Amino acid sequence: MKTISIGIAGLGTVAQGVLSLLAENRSLIEQRSGVSVHVVRVASRSAKPGVDLHGADFSTDVMDLLSDSRIELIVELIGGEGLAKELIVGALNSGKAVVTANKAVIALHGNELPRQALRFEAAVAGAIPIIQALQYGLVANQFSSISGIINGTCNYMLSAMEEEGVGFDEILERAQALGYAEADPTFDVDGIDAAHKLTILMALAFGTQFEFDKVYVEGIRAITPTDINYAAELGYRIKHLGILRGHADGIEARVHPTLVPHGELVAHVSGVLNAVQVVSDAAGKTLFSGPGAGGAATASAVVADIVDTALNSQRPSVDAVVDTSKAILPVAQISSAYYLRIPTRDEPGVFAEVTQILSSHNINIEAVIQKDGHDQGESVDIVLLTQDTQEAHMNKALAQLEALASVTDTVMRIRVAPQD
Amino acid sequence: MKTISIGIAGLGTVAQGVLSLLAENRSLIEQRSGVSVHVVRVASRSAKPGVDLHGADFSTDVMDLLSDSRIELIVELIGGEGLAKELIVGALNSGKAVVTANKAVIALHGNELPRQALRFEAAVAGAIPIIQALQYGLVANQFSSISGIINGTCNYMLSAMEEEGVGFDEILERAQALGYAEADPTFDVDGIDAAHKLTILMALAFGTQFEFDKVYVEGIRAITPTDINYAAELGYRIKHLGILRGHADGIEARVHPTLVPHGELVAHVSGVLNAVQVVSDAAGKTLFSGPGAGGAATASAVVADIVDTALNSQRPSVDAVVDTSKAILPVAQISSAYYLRIPTRDEPGVFAEVTQILSSHNINIEAVIQKDGHDQGESVDIVLLTQDTQEAHMNKALAQLEALASVTDTVMRIRVAPQD
Question: Does residue B319 form part of some domain?
Fold first, then answer.
């Protein structure tokens, strides 16, 4: 039996989940993996009298974990970027391994960290063992595309908007009441959290550096029940996806609302669940879904990383596969099909004007929804699904469309999921 | 860099997939895992002149792999139970590790094999790294239920029957023409292949012996488009599932057609894909889907096992967790909701007779479909969805229903997926 002595920084829900999981399933973990995990110290700014530390020492200074020579691995669960990063760097530099659920530190500062003994399964898609799948289960595969629902808040909100036909603001209030969204929801609903996770997946799957700044990010604030309904009519669900695609000349990395066809499994992942779809040369299209957050679910991933460290301390870090030749493509260079909702005056000739502009940019129309029954002169939506075109062309076409006198408001543009 | 020298037994599509995957993605595998895999000998009854062995020696006798002292690991891909088992036992007894895709040998003879150095990710659900997920990614979890689509032939056929409204025989012919079903389809359509895989999942997830004989097995021959349509009307799809559920007094292990509610992700896994849903105490409900067969997809799992052997040769085998206290429950003891299609004479009082019998066994009705517009005296289906009841009670009720003069044919009974 291998043993590993660990220290835990933080005493929130995930840390509590790790403590109780290690205690309750101790013998099962030992039998299954041959690894015995000992928590020797827990450190947190404030003690929590109700939490059973199962005999571990307690410090109010997380830096005490660095000086405790018994500790071989530090589990960083304090969150944030300052102290957490300091602790991670300190641990790695002093020869301790680190397991963290901190996606911001990895996505934003991953390049500066010595990563040989750093693991972060819990930072992406909660309980889903997606990082282990990329590194072990699919080890033999070259990845061509990784995409998925990697923010549970957005997925909960879009699912609820679809089911109930109500708007963003009302659902946000509910998500906040249910604890699915923070008081300041920016991180989630504006796509930043998803972009952190996508940055990590990109480094692992495509061997890039951690390049958060180059990920194109759009949130879900602009999505309306109207768009959700039109999308349904066209055979799609609107999901907030992170998308990575490898090309000969670079990598697409983008986070935005996306029309996903009903035939795709990802379209049926509802509520706070996460799902990651991997397309690769040998395994083909695989999908991994599960809870993306929560104390116990995240603890499951943390403990998997602790065991993996004990078993595979010599595994190459992601450093080993960094391929700096791969550029991350500007979003203007991607090719996509698009959903367009164009608010127009209900006048003769408007549709012809719209199609003429699209045609002048070589943008072909795949499907159209035009609602009848309006009075002349009222505003009416022209809803289009285009075939694949380069985003740069679409941007030019949109500028011209919005300049038309007959177009009454901003054109709503949502990208369609690539066919992988 | 760790190196591992392997021999491959067999030269069919999977073996060819392994050879080309190891050649094409060699540097990627080495960078990602730190493991360098060398194929030193390939053995197959007959040479295949067109296949590139990438410099490996060739034998027509697979037993040559045992006497080649360079070989540390044998990949068994000849299939069948006789020679394959002999080779596996010979390899393990002579201190060589074994990786196999042979589900029959593992499910039927697993208990007799020395399993410390035996891996079989490719035996269950093809490319999906489900065994690694159970043993590594979800290592900290106690599993309460494992269920899923683990036979691609059945899933292709049921999906096609639903889409096209045609019957079993016609779809079977097509599946055979497409190579999705064997000339003798028994293994797949009667559920035996799925039961092999379920036997393996049970041993891994619940620590039982390999007890294929105790798995309850039903195939899909009896399923009709009529049942598929009724199920759809009730909000369900019919899927051929393998189901494992842990209880205090034992384990349910069963393979049969199952009504899966549309709200479940598994209901949307179509065509030849496989999907395994895992419910566990910490990670909650996770799902893993992907191609269940095919040369490259299976090769992906085989190579993952080769790398895993090189990295984790000291991992405890499944032996370590065998818990013989867990009995496998007879199917009569399971509790389930049921779909019943009862062909009856369209006469007054028949429905009352039916409900009276169910009620006498304390079986409650959840939903009913009764079609109008028939002439008196014609045969008409009474379609019912029951609430949960013990299978033993349902068996008694069915016997009484079928004894009714007004019931004109066998009652179709399909179990509803448990709510996990």
Answer: no
SS3 of residue A16 by DSSP: helix
- Contact between B92 and B118 under an 8 Å Cβ cutoff? The reply is yes
Task: Answer for the pair B170, B164: CB distance below 8 angstroms, yes or no.
Answer: no
CB B218 within 8 A of CB B230: no
Look up the domain containing B50 and give its range.
2-123
CB-closest option in B127, B129, B285 to A284: B127
Whole-angstrom distance, CA of residue A134 vs CA of residue A29:
22
Active-site residue flag, B326: no
Residues B64 and B190 in one domain: no
For residue B143, being part of any structural domain is answered with: yes
Give per-residue pLDDT as tens, B298-341: 999 999 999 999 998 766 665 556 676 789 999 999 999 999 99
Q: Model confidence over B211-223: pLDDT tens digits?
A: 999 999 999 999 9
* Tens-place pLDDT, residues B40-72: 999 999 888 889 999 999 999 999 999 999 999
Mode of pairing for the β-strands spanning A250-261 and A412-416:
parallel
pTM: 0.96
Q: What residues contact residue A19 under an 8 Å CB cut-off, 6+ apart?
A: A8, A39, A42, A51, A52, A53, A54, A56
B233 lies in the same domain as B154: yes
Q: How far is A48 from chain B (nearest CA, A)?
A: 22
Residues ≥6 apart with Cβ < 8 Å to B334: B252, B254, B390, B391
Instruction: Report yes or no on B323 lying in a domain.
Output: no
ipTM above 0.90, yes or no: yes
How many residue pairs from chains A and B have C-beta atoms closer than 8 A?
A: 204
Q: Tell me if A239 sits within 8 A of A152, measured CB to CB.
A: no
Question: Which residue on chain B is closest to A207 by alpha carbon?
Answer: B32
pLDDT at A98 exceeding the cut of 70: yes
CA distance B403 to chain A (A): 43
